[in-house]
Amino acid sequence: MDQAVCCYRHPDRETGIRCTRCERPICPECMVNASVGFQCPECVNEANRRTAAPRTVAGGTVAADPFLITKILIGLNIAVFLLVKAVGDRLVNDLGLYAICGNDPFTGQHACIGVADGADQWYRVITSAFLHQEYWHIGFNMLSLWWIGAPLERLLGRSRYLALYVVSALGGSAAVLLISPDVLTLGASGAVFGLFGATAVFMRRMRYDMRPILILLALNIVFSFTWANVSWQGHMGGLIAGTVIAIGMAYAPRERRDLVQWGTLAAVLVVSLALTGVAVAQITS
Question: Which InterPro entries match (predicted)?
């Protein structure tokens, strides 16, 4: 008499079906439909692990919500803006970007304030990028962040997009401290201009019609140099940083893509911080 064959996962259940991959006996509860026959759960899981996860154009992981980071950044900017409205100018002075050294008009003593006051004030190079005072300012920046940032986040993936945003903001801050450190500067414009530059690079790389982004970028550059109280220094610093990072991301060879992309990001970050250090040294000397 033949011995009964039982499911390898349920020894109390007889079966006449075997996994088409490993040939282990499986009961109806364990059967997973395959292109030919049935497979056991372990073989299906192993196949899923070996299947490459879908990637974005830049090599990032495809996320369920491709716009999550953009939404979070917009939320943070709006939250800080509401906090400024509730607390007043004190928060602007505490988080804004400036670096000044000179003699106190009341005491006559030499003093430094802002980023020039010491390393513990360097947080201003990033907090200032989330700081807005006027409704038009945050409105314009957040609309630009959504229109430009959301498609770019889907193109890059979350980690690359966030790194691009932050380092572009730092590049804008470095340019401000080098050129006009004595003027209080705030706003997400430096980071947004970095996204503009990155969008232009990827549109060129993907052979899209570049006229719309070039026209938009040109209008924003003209706006930067012609409107009063607009930091063209921060805009151009962010634009340069974002463009350089995007070139590294878009044209990295596939076999060394991660190394080139993150290496470019690291290089721009180091240069931005180094220029910030040079600017502070010039101000305090």
Answer: Peptidase_S54_rhomboid_dom, Rhomboid-like_sf, Rhomboid_protease_S54
Write the CATH number for 201.
1.20.1540.10
Domain assignment present for residue 154? The answer is yes
In tens, the pLDDT along 130-144 reads: 999 999 999 999 999
Residues 6+ away with beta carbon under 8 Å from 56: 62, 154, 155, 156, 157
| Band of pLDDT at residue 237, cut at 50, 70 and 90 | very high
Look up the domain containing 149 and give its range: 68-284
pTM value is: 0.81
Of the candidates 76, 66, 55, 70, the residue with the CA atom closest to the CA atom of residue 195: 70
Signed CA dihedral, 35, 41, 46, 52: sign only? positive
Residue 165 CA to residue 94 CA, distance in Å, equals: 22
Q: How many CB atoms lie within 10 A of CB 265?
A: 20
Residues 85 and 33 in one domain: no
**Joined tokens for residue 69:** 């980071």
Instruction: Give catalytic residue positions.
Output: 189, 235
Contact 191, 129 (CB under 8 A): yes
84 domain residue, yes or no? yes
Q: Which residues contact 27 (CB under 8 A, 6 or more apart)?
A: 7, 9, 10, 13, 15, 17
174: Cβ contacts below 8 Å, ≥ 6 apart: 125, 237, 271, 272, 273, 275, 276, 279
Q: What is the mean pLDDT of residues 113-131?
A: 94
59 in any annotated domain: no
C-alpha separations of 88 from 20, 56, 134 in Å: 70, 42, 12
Is position 265 within any domain? yes
Judge whether 77 and 113 are in contact, CB under 8 Å. Answer: no
φ, ψ dihedrals at 33, nearest 5°: -60, 135
- N- to C-terminal Cα separation, the chain: 98
